[in-house]
Amino acid sequence: MKKNKNENSFKRAKEFLQTSPYLLWLMLILITALFTITHHPKQSQTSYSYSIGDVAKRDIKAPKNFFVEDKKATSIKIDEVKESVKNIYDFDANLLNKIHSNIDTAIKIPKELFNKTNEQTPEPDPTFAIILDTKSEFEEKLGIEISKGAYSILYKDQFSSDMTEKIKTIIEKILTNGIVANKEILLKETHKGIILRTIGSKEERIVNNLKVFYGPDQAKTMVRIEGEPLLKGINYNLSNLIVDLCQRLLQPNITLNKNETEKRIKEAETNIKPILYQIKTGEMILREGERVDKVQLIKLMALQAQVKEKNIFISSTGIALITFFTILVVYLLFLKDHKKLHPAHNKHIFFLALGLVLYLTFAKFSTYIAQSANPDATWDISSLSFFLIIPIPSAAMLTCLFLGFDIAIFFTIILSLLTSLVFSGNFEVFIFFFLSSITAAYWIKARQARKNFIIAGFKLAIFNGVLAISIGFYSLAQPDVIILAKEVAMAFCGGLFSATLTIGFAPLIEVIFDYTTDSKLLEFSNLDQPLIKKLMIEAPGTYNHSVIVATLAEAAASAIDVSSLKAKVMGYYHDIGKLDKKLYYIENQADGKNRHDKLSPSMSALILIGHVKNGVEMAKKYKLGNEIIDGIIQHHGTSLIKYFYQKSLNSGNDTVKEENFRYPGPKPQTREAGIVMLADVVEAAVRALERPTPARIQGRVKELINDIFADGQLEECELTLKDLHQIAKSFNNILTSIYHSRIEYPDKIQEKKKEKNGSSKSTDRQSANKENTNGHNPAKDKTDLKRLGL
Predict the structure, then answer these.
(1) pLDDT at 775 over 70
(2) By CB neighbour count within 10 A (0-12 exposed, 13-18 middle, 19+ buried), where does 69 fall?
């Protein structure tokens, strides 16, 4: 009792795992969590900290396009721009008016004393002592100090207006031309000129001829030159005094504005863009063993600047969401309702999930190997091209082998995308694995013998090599022959590894998931299999029937382009359940006794129906696989056992139920199972035909297929009318060849003649005795085995 209870619990648990949708969600969450944990982004530890003269420890290639600033060229450009900015000089246009005003104001003070005396004519001119009292105020207004002697000269001239005008004229000529405080500094700008900005109006003009401006000393000299024509005929002392006053009154009216100049230089610098040059993806920056030079150091520093610190939580969340939605979307759109996955849906999805985890583990493990060989390589691991050798296409090959090419394509989309995430989301990784995997799956789908996997492996290796060259041309700025050769070698080995891994995993998967591959079907198609031998020895009639059904099914499957191997093997094993009660089937009743004569029609129907259940149990015992078990279950569908049903009706039983005389089904679910059903019915019926002429065979085949079609037995297996037409043609060709008419041999002709003449029938052996011409008695030479075969 306890054992049965445990078995029932195990069955319930197994059924729950095979049907529960919660298991699918659990697998999705687990895969997402595992992938996120094992592939979460780490803070970059990549170091490119080399100094000039250091020896490179490894090859360093650009992982992506980036720009490098040529600081030296940028600095030169900045210097050029700074040099090109013209200095700003302020021109004080009001200085002349100011000096004139000061002169007028100063002269007016002593002049007024002379004007008063002139108005009162009786009084004499003021004395020098009186005028001398105004000297300090005069100097203050004029802005310069003068000696007592100079003041006396002015006194003698009575501070005349003519003298004042001459001073103002000379000063105006000099200031109008312009006086610069430091002409030496000014002349350094001769090559580019200056900007002369008028104070007040802010008007600017560019001056290129800087020599025209006077320096302070030059201005004093120009006073004498400009004053010479004006001072002719004037008292020598007064003339010298005027020149001295002019020289002392003159001030520079052109000055350098350093603040404005610096401001404009900074504005020009701000508008200067750094000089950049582009580094292409895959471009070799530094080779292993090379000494680092200045240019390479600049590139390495720029590469280091590309490494940005990531927010671990946000990046991990992004990876988790990408993984989750990639798997979920592909499943919902392409796999959830896929017909090939309907039987044992959870089992098939578990197989795909296990394959996904296993091959992603391969990819992750390869990164650890690459990093151990190159400790500095972390975030740019894809640039090492190590991914080319990973046997990811093996996953697509195995998926195609067990679930079909279309399922393999959908699975490849997920696997290629997640594998590219392992390699920092590298686009080349995705393209390589996607194209390589679907190509490998395509080449493997038609391969039945395991040895042919190697052929597909070599083809894949060559394709991978060409693909590696293509990716190299795309990613490398300057394709390097050595690098390309290295990548081609790794890609070639990756193709061979994929085929080898497929061969190794296939038998293991067959056992674990109870899958049936073409290789396994080939093994079961061998007629030396123990179960087939048992059928041949214990039920030769059923064996002969099964062989012919297998032949018919194989030919029909080839005609409509479905798996002929699967159809043939289904045909071999479809009736193995008859071994349990073999003598209850007419093809095995050699003694002419029919066991059903003593049974009720309902009991006979139960025995016939029971051979399906017995066949399933026997197939499970011999581990024939689900494909063959499905063929056994479905080869009768829900068809009616017409003979015993009619017999039961004829017996006067009013309570006869048609469902009691129908097989339990299900109806054929695949085209191969439908073909086996048709072949089984047609072979049995044609065998029973009297005088099976081609015309009668064709008519019988047509009639039987029409009956099965009308009964709805082919509703669920997608056989079209065109398929049925091709199946009928192949059945007719084979059955006509098997049951063709034969010519009669001469001894048969003699026997017939003797029968006509009243002679008794003779056996083949007797005919041979009569034809003996050498006079010996055959009875003395041969033993007569009278009971042979009885």
Answers:
(1) no
(2) middle
CA distances in angstroms from 216 to 176, 410, 446, listed in the order given: 14, 91, 103
What is the CB-side half-sphere exposure of residue 661 using CA atoms within 13 A?
18
Which stretch of DSSP H or E encloses residue 198? strand 194-198
Judge contact between 177 and 207, C-beta under 8 A. no
Residues 226 and 173: their CA atoms lie apart, in Å, by: 8
* DSSP helix/strand/coil, 526: coil
> Measured between alpha carbons, how far is 605 from 602 in angstroms, rounded to an integer?
5
Distance, CA of 343 to CA of 633 (rounded, Å): 14
Tokens of 712: 């709805």
Question: What does the pLDDT read at residue 493?
Answer: 93
Q: Which domains does the chain have, with CATH numbers?
A: 93-179+214-252 (no CATH), 329-501 (no CATH), 520-738 (1.10.3210)
The total number of residues shown for the chain amounts to: 790
CA pair distance 629, 574, nearest whole angstrom: 8
Taking the model in full, what pTM does it have? 0.60
Q: Are 568 and 734 in contact (CB under 8 A)?
A: no
To 5 degrees, how large is the angle CA 118–CA 120–CA 126?
60
* Mean pLDDT computed over 722-740: 91
User: Could you tell me which residue, 767 or 572, shows the higher pLDDT?
Assistant: 572
Q: How far is CA 637 from CA 500, 564, 645, 683, 713, in A?
A: 41, 20, 17, 17, 6
Least confident of 69-73, 103-107, 681-685: 69-73
Query: Helix, strand, coil shares of the chain as percentages rounded to 5?
Result: 65, 5, 30
Largest CA distance in the chain: 208
**Are 297 and 51 spatial neighbours (Cβ–Cβ below 8 Å)?**
yes
First vs last C-alpha separation in the chain: 50
Rounded to the nearest angstrom, the gap between the alpha carbon of residue 758 and the centroid of all alpha carbons in its chain is: 91
Main-chain phi, psi angles of 127, to 5 degrees: -75, 165
Contact status, residue 192 vs residue 228, Cβ threshold 8 Å: no
Amino acid at 638: T
Residue recorded with tokens 């080995």 = 493
The closest alpha carbon to 286, from 275, 277, 273, 299, belongs to: 299
pLDDT at 780 over 50: no
What pLDDT shows up at residue 20?
81
User: Residue 52 is encoded by which pair of tokens?
Assistant: 């000039």
3-state secondary structure of 57: coil
- Is the peptide bond between 122 and the residue preceding it cis, with omega within 30 degrees of 0? no
CA–CA separation, 73 and 448 (whole Å):
66
Give per-residue pLDDT as tens, 395-454: 999 999 888 899 999 999 999 999 998 887 888 899 999 999 999 999 987 655 566 788
Spatial distance between the Cα atoms of 266 and 274, rounded to a whole number of angstroms: 15
> Helix, strand, or coil here: 220?
helix
- Is-contact 117 126, C-beta < 8 A? yes
How far is residue 443's CA from residue 249's CA, in Å, rounded to a whole number?
104
**Residue pair 241/154 in contact by the 8 Å Cβ criterion:** yes
Of 193, 249, 257, 189, whose CA–CA distance to 216 is shortest? 249
- pLDDT of 673: 94
Residue 12: per-residue pLDDT: 64
Contact 212, 189 (CB under 8 A): no
